[in-house]
Amino acid sequence: MNFLGAGTKTTFPWLQNLHQTRGASILLLLGVSLLVYGTAQLARGRGSSGSVVGPGASLEAGVTARQILDERYARGEIDDEEYRRRRDELT
């Protein structure tokens, strides 16, 4: 008895005996691999258009750490002492 049921006809004849061959294992491995890869890419934020600054985040081309530090200081996110300390670490 095949996995499609006894005497079942299909438009894909190769599919009826696929479970008895290495092809099923290869297709299953490929499918699971693609699923894991896609999930990992989504989790890492690949393809997102938003600019997120944080650990592991990629910066847009041309933006330097000094510019980000200056912007954070201008917005009041960090005080004078922390700004100077981080600026000195960057240089």
Description of the molecule:
With 91 residues, this protein is mainly α. The chain folds into two domains: 10-47; 59-91, no CATH class. 54% of the residues lie in helices and 0% in strands. The chain has four helices and no strands. The chain has helices spanning 13-16, 22-44, 65-75, 80-90. 0% of the residues are buried. The model has no long low-confidence stretch (mean pLDDT 76).
Topology:
Blueprint: H1 13-16, H2 22-44, H3 65-75, H4 80-90
Helix pairs in contact: 3-4
In short:
The chain is an all-alpha fold and 91 residues long.
Number of helices: 4
Question: Total domains, how many?
Answer: 2
Low-confidence stretches: none
**Which percent range describes the beta-strand content?**
under 5%
Q: Write the element-wise H/E pattern from the N-terminal end onward.
A: HHHH
The value of Rg in angstroms is: 27 Å
Helix content estimate: 40-55%
> In terms of structural class, how would the helical and strand content be classed?
mainly alpha
Shape: rod-shaped
The overall strand count is 0
Distance between the termini: 72 Å
Mind describing the biggest β-sheet?
Answer: none
Quaternary organisation of the protein chains: single chain
Average residue pLDDT:
76
